[in-house]
Design brief:
heterodimer, A: 357 residues, mainly beta, 5-stranded antiparallel β-sheet, 4-stranded antiparallel β-sheet, B: 202 residues, 9% helix, 60% strand, elongated
Chain lengths: 357, 202
């Protein structure tokens, strides 16, 4: 009887341990996160800005840097108590959005954009004329009056910018007009696309934006929303506008971090197209080849995702050197080069992500 | 990494072979004797095996993305026979990941020790620990099955006090059922402690 009692206790303890052995709190296994951790550089990348051909530039919590140097091109805050809030590179020119905090010893909340150069960056000259509230990485400025043209001084769209989402070439804006109606605008290379110039919008706070068809006259985009059923992808097309019905639902949750936009990129395999979006602990990969079909959604933890899936990512841009090469800004480890050239339709095992030194 | 594994194994074998001549029929311990010990030292990342995910498989040593960590414990055992001691051990293990986040493991175990070599001045003990451990990393925590196997050669410089070096493998099991989205993240994590052990026997 005593032996049976001891045996029963051992079985119960084992059962309790087995029940407790799963990690219910996080969205990924503990050892999975450990094995996917990346070396911290103690540099928080706020945005990857792009390259001038030779150097990679990024905006960090300490200022604007190029990867090859630990000395800031421009410090985050200067002696005049101005703080860098955004930046954009156009060739060899550098545009910097600067928030003014003090004027004549009185606290203020205004912002200016300075045009300077990458070779000799400085905030000592006169800023551009208007007062701004934002600057996208791909070079679109906006303020209290609305969105400006590529010269950053001519008002292009009137209204109050609610929020924006952007990629390498495109920018999506949610704007509230003077009649308090929500309007959507999509810019490409600084110009408003005619088919997406003041689309009827809504107050949904979309959290990701990805162009999926950019050739020809019918450009298609995906917007990700946070619905009651999860994070859902919606099609936005020139012919049908924004489809409120979800086209797909992500398998993983999106991160709740400092960035208001979940990073994503589009890669191609032969004639197929796939959208990869950075989720909390995985990259969800969506087959967006055929907009008439419900796409498959696959969480990815290996290949290119292995080393960067657990860190926060500020943004992902194409390198411009070739297709299927991208640069990601990370909150832990500066910049990563994502190489999707060896992706196949069924496997991402040979894709890589490498820290840019 | 493979050569490091072989080195550990070779050291263990040499120690055991060296102890063979000292193996004698006479014993030093008897049932009722007690041992209290404290251990402190380092722990090396051993392996993480994702047994449900063939893509990730098993990563070992520094490929686990863990840094060198530390281990400390206290143990109390009573001899139940001339060669076997039974008791418990409470430990604390820490390792930092590459992103400098802290992984902590707090094992609470039943400890069974076999002492085949006991000359009075020199002991060679092999221990098996079974129990559970609290594990915490980032926003995740769980209580999981824990087991370890260690070897401890000790030298007693007085009748009561001894000092030794302990090493072996300690493993924790994180598992998810098939219906859980994290099923592929089920894993065994192995750590290799190398500690200095201070013992008091009575």
């Amino acid at each position: 009887m005593k032996r049976n009692t001891l045996f029963a206790i051992a079985i119960m303890i084992t059962a309790v341990l087995l029940l407790c052995a799963c990690n219910q709190d996080a969205t990924d296994g503990i050892y999975s996160k450990v094995a996917s951790s990346t070396e911290s550089k103690d540099v928080v990348t706020r945005a990857y800005l792009g390259t001038d051909g030779a150097e990679y530039y990024y905006l960090s919590d300490k200022g604007i840097f190029k990867v090859s140097s630990s000395t800031a091109l421009l410090e985050m805050a200067d002696d005049d108590k101005r703080i860098i809030r955004g930046a954009s590179i156009d060739g060899t020119d550098l545009y910097v959005l600067v928030q003014n905090t003090v004027e004549d010893d009185e606290p203020v909340f205004t912002a200016n954009i300075f045009k300077t150069t990458l070779s000799s960056p400085s905030l000592s000259g006169d800023p551009l004329a208007p007062s701004y509230t934002g600057l996208t990485v791909n070079g679109i400025a906006y303020g209290a009056e609305g969105i400006y043209d590529t010269d950053m001084t001519t008002l292009k769209v009137s209204g109050t910018v609610n929020y924006h989402l952007e990629t390498e070439e495109y920018a999506f804006f949610s704007v509230v007009d003077s009649d308090e109606n929500y309007k959507f605008y999509i810019f490409k290379d600084g110009a408003v696309l005619s088919d997406f110039n003041g689309l009827e919008g809504d107050d949904t706070a979309y959290v990701a934006f990805q162009p999926i068809d950019t050739d020809g006259s019918d450009e298609n985009f995906v917007l990700i929303s946070n619905d009651s059923s999860g994070f859902c992808g919606h099609l936005l097309t020139a012919t049908d506008g924004l489809d409120s019905t979800a086209w797909f639902t992500l398998k993983s949750s999106l991160p709740y971090g400092s960035s208001t936009q979940a990073a994503s990129f589009l890669y191609t395999v032969d004639t197929s197209k796939f959208m990869a979006i950075k989720c909390n602990n995985y990259f969800d990969v969506i087959d967006v080849s055929d907009t008439t079909e419900t796409p498959t959604v696959t969480p990815i933890a290996t290949g290119f995702a292995q080393d960067i899936r657990t860190t926060e990512i500020s943004n992902i841009l194409e390198t411009g050197d070739s297709t299927n090469l991208f640069v990601a800004g990370t909150y832990d480890s500066m910049l990563y080069l994502i190489d999707m050239t060896n992706a196949t339709e069924t496997s991402l095992a040979d894709t890589t992500s490498t820290q840019i030194e | 990494m493979k050569s490091f594994k072989k080195l550990i194994l070779a050291l263990v074998v040499v120690l055991m072979l060296a102890a063979v001549p000292a193996f004698a029929r006479s014993t030093y311990y008897f049932a009722g004797d007690q041992v209290f010990s404290i251990r402190a030292g380092v722990d090396f990342p051993g392996f993480i095996s994702f047994y449900n995910d063939s893509d990730r498989g098993t990563v070992s040593f520094w490929d686990t993305h863990m840094k060198l960590g530390g281990f400390a414990s206290i143990a109390y055992q009573g001899y139940i026979s001339e060669y076997f001691a039974l008791g418990g051990e409470l430990g604390y293990v820490f390792n930092y990941s590459l992103s400098n986040k802290l992984l902590t493991t707090v094992p609470m175990t039943v400890k069974l020790t076999y002492v085949p070599v006991q000359t009075g001045r020199f002991d060679l003990a092999a221990s098996l620990n079974l129990g559970g451990a609290f594990v915490r990393y980032d926003d995740g925590k769980f209580f999981a099955p824990f087991a370890s196997i260690t070897l401890t050669p000790s030298f007693f410089f007085t009748d009561n006090w001894g000092i030794g070096i302990e090493s072996g493998v300690m493993a924790t099991w994180e598992f998810y059922t098939k219906s859980n989205d994290k099923h592929d993240s089920s894993a065994f994590c192995g750590l290799i402690p190398v500690t200095l052990a201070l013992s008091y026997r009575h």
